[in-house]
Design brief:
Blueprint lengths: L7 H26 L4 H11 L5 E3 H7 L4 H13 L3 E5 L7 E5 L1 H21 L6 H18 L19
Antiparallel strand pairs: 1-3, 2-3
Helix pairs in contact: 1-5, 3-4
């Protein structure tokens, strides 16, 4: 066997995975308290931070860890729960938008103080400001390489205008 199990590449990706898993488990308990799964929270945050609080379903799939069929199931479940709704795309009948509702925004307002406290304690406070800035730059570089669709639909130019009534 010629594999070098001490290869620093194993260490790099292993540390990244361990850090992500540790943070995710700390966040999951707080989200469960608010009756929201981690993926539902991610969908709510993506929509709340998007222009007009909406994304095309395909863009939402590209920005999350979900497939297009997975995002459809999550959106349908969240639609039934009143947290988001679907809207037809005015320029493409085959496409639809996921839009966060007032109830979805209210749920985020309940969740975010505790969530941000955990982010601060277990992520931000672990790094100096310079380390954090370098890490964010590095993560964007990696994200853009492995998931070029991660920011699809996140600017005003990407979204057709909502017709006025």
């Amino acid at each position: 066997m010629g594999t070098d199990f001490d290869d620093s590449r194993f260490t790099a990706i292993g540390l990244f995975a361990e850090a992500f898993t540790g943070l995710s488990s700390r966040f999951a308990a707080q989200l469960e308290h608010h009756r929201v799964s981690p993926v539902e929270f991610e969908v709510l945050m993506r929509l709340a931070r998007s222009p007009q609080n909406r994304l095309r379903m395909t863009d939402l799939a590209g920005q999350t860890s979900l497939s297009t069929s997975g995002v459809t199931r999550v959106v349908d479940r969240m639609d039934r729960g009143g947290l988001i709704r679907r809207e037809a795309c005015p320029s493409d009948r085959r496409s639809s938008f996921a839009v966060i509702t007032e109830a979805g925004l209210a749920r985020l307002e309940e969740i975010l103080p505790g969530h941000l406290e955990l982010v601060q304690r277990w992520f931000i406070d672990q790094l100096t400001p310079d380390q954090l800035a370098q890490m964010l730059e590095s993560l964007r570089t990696i994200r853009d390489a492995v998931n070029p669709c991660a920011t699809a639909g996140s600017s005003e130019e990407d979204i057709p205008a909502v017709p006025t009534r």
